[in-house]
Amino acid sequence: MQMEKILWADDEIDLLKPHIMFLQAKGYEVATVSNGRDALDALDRERFHLILLDENMPGLSGLETLSAINLRHPDVPVIMITKSEEENLMNQAIGNQIADYLIKPVNPNQILLSIKKNLHSGELVARQASSDYQQEFMRLSSLINSAGCMDDWMEVYRRLVYWELKLSDTDNSLGEMLLMQKRDANSNFCKFVKREYEGWLKSPDHPMMSHEIFKNRVFPLLDGGEKICVVLIDNFRLDQWKVIQPLLSEWFDFEEELYTTILPTSTQYARNAIFAGLMPLQIATMYPDLWVEEDENEGLNIHERALIKTQLDRYRRKEQFSYNKLNDSAAGERFLQKINQLKEIPLNVIVMNFIDMLSHAGTESKMIRELAGSDAAYRSLTESWFRHSSSLDILRRLAELGFTVVLTTDHGTIRVDNPIKVVGDRNTNTNLRYKVGKNLNYNPRQVYEMKSPKKFGLPAPNISSTFIYACNEDFFSYPNNYNYYVQYYTGTFQHGGISLQEMLVPLVTLSPK
Predict the structure, then answer these.
(1) Closest of 200, 259, 264 to residue 232, by C-alpha
(2) Distances (CA, A) of 220 to 3, 210, 217, 402
(3) What is the dihedral of CA 57, 61, 66, 71, to 10 degrees?
């Protein structure tokens, strides 16, 4: 194992020999210099893993030396050690991106702790995470096997996402163990949904679902006199929320929960249910002009503003509302320019479509598929988009304007890798995770089937139409040109079916600080 090399620059270096011997005994190679110029020369001659830098040295000061180091060796962490407790000096040092700031006198363990934090934190965190997960494995497996209600399943999913994020930088063997647990969990969750879903639609005792979000979470806030902005990020999962949450913590406090989407987990059904406050069959029956059938050519979610209005009218709510759909960065920038106009509007709805477009692009574009080739990469692209797009600025401005934000989605998505053959006529829809048609041929043991769609709150295009749903990481493929389509769609992100990732999605109330 390579010994880490540390350069220590201090004009009183001879007085620090006990500290140097302590670090050498801990396995570090320590080189010493007594001024900033010699430190820069040493760095130019050989590679060091970390620098300990005194501020008060003759010639080049510590801050001047630090600036030169940042220009010539920006990858080497610098720990500044100084007698000065001046706040201005601290601010300058931190502004120059030092790794740590220690005030003399320091004991050897303080220095060792700072070194470990900067040189070994990734390794130590990964080692501890691995140990913790191995202890958690059996408890999580037991919870997966005993889950008997939706609250249990939400806890399972939260734990799986927690460990997925925590283990993302550890060895592959633990990643494989977690993937096995996720698949086991999805298999059991699909059985649970098959057993319970129809009953949820008949009983008041059911988990909160898509068509109940406004009634249960938005209207009570309005009744409390708050200004509300509902931000719906299409195709948004719990793990994606977790990676963007830190970006918002400066401006908001969070109240996080999960809700259960209706089936199919697709925009046409789930999102329209959210905005109408109705199941799809009710929308098609009560507002036939606002429901678009599967086989129609017009957009499947073009009536969202009108559906929101119908929900407000049914609940006799008189609030003025706004609706904006942001399909690209240009639309986001235009909206940001006029965001002050929302100040006097009590209810605002914003739909952000980027992640849904990313999901579809991952199917259609080889380059995007390479960039989003795993759940971790998919999360990383989401975080990068959010950090650098107008979306972050929009939410920051909403906080500044005093809005309470209800952040949610219509459904999640899952990476598919197991093809299932299904045969349908030319009128069968194209979605890979659910099919609806009147002449479907499939193995009923591999799917969840709804032979009487009206019992499940769904309109049927034909009297003999059947809905079927893929579970786990399955996707539907036609026998014609089977091998080509299997290769084309394996590893892509899809939605419409039954999985923890698609059905249990974030619903977060963000209160401005």
Answers:
(1) 259
(2) 61, 16, 6, 17
(3) -130
Of the ranges 150-159, 207-216, 372-381, 496-505, which one carries the lowest mean pLDDT score?
372-381
What's the rounded Cα separation, in Å, for the pair 496 and 264?
5
- Please count the CA atoms within 13 angstroms of the CA of 268 that sit on its side-chain side: 20
Q: Which residues contact 505 (CB under 8 A, 6 or more apart)?
A: 236, 237, 238, 258, 259, 261, 408, 409, 410, 411, 412
Q: The pTM is what?
A: 0.82
Residues with Cβ < 8 Å from 32, sequence gap 6 or more? Answer: 7, 8, 9, 10, 13, 16, 20
| Minimum mean pLDDT range among 111-125, 223-237, 272-286, 431-445 | 111-125
What distance in Å separates the CA atoms of residue 341 and residue 68, rounded to the nearest whole number? 48
Distances (CA, A) of 310 to 77, 103, 344: 59, 64, 22
Q: What is the DSSP string of 221-235?
A: HHHTT--EEEEEETT
Q: Which tokens sit at 179?
A: 């993937």
DSSP three-state, residue 392: helix
CA distance 422 to 479: 7
Counting residues of the chain whose pLDDT is more than 70, the rounded percentage is 92
In this structure, of 92-101, 281-290, 298-307, 440-449, the range with the lowest mean pLDDT score is 92-101
pLDDT of 261-314, one tens digit each? 999 999 899 999 999 999 999 999 999 999 987 655 445 668 999 999 999 999
User: Nearest-5° angle of CA 136, CA 137, CA 138?
Assistant: 95
345 three-class SS? coil
Rounded CA-CA distance 327/265 in Å is 20
- Side-chain-side CA neighbours of 424 within 13 Å: the count stands at 23
- Cβ proximity of 238 and 505 under 8 Å: yes
42-63 pLDDT, tens digit per residue, is 999 999 999 999 988 888 888 8
* Token pair recorded at residue 55: 């501020």
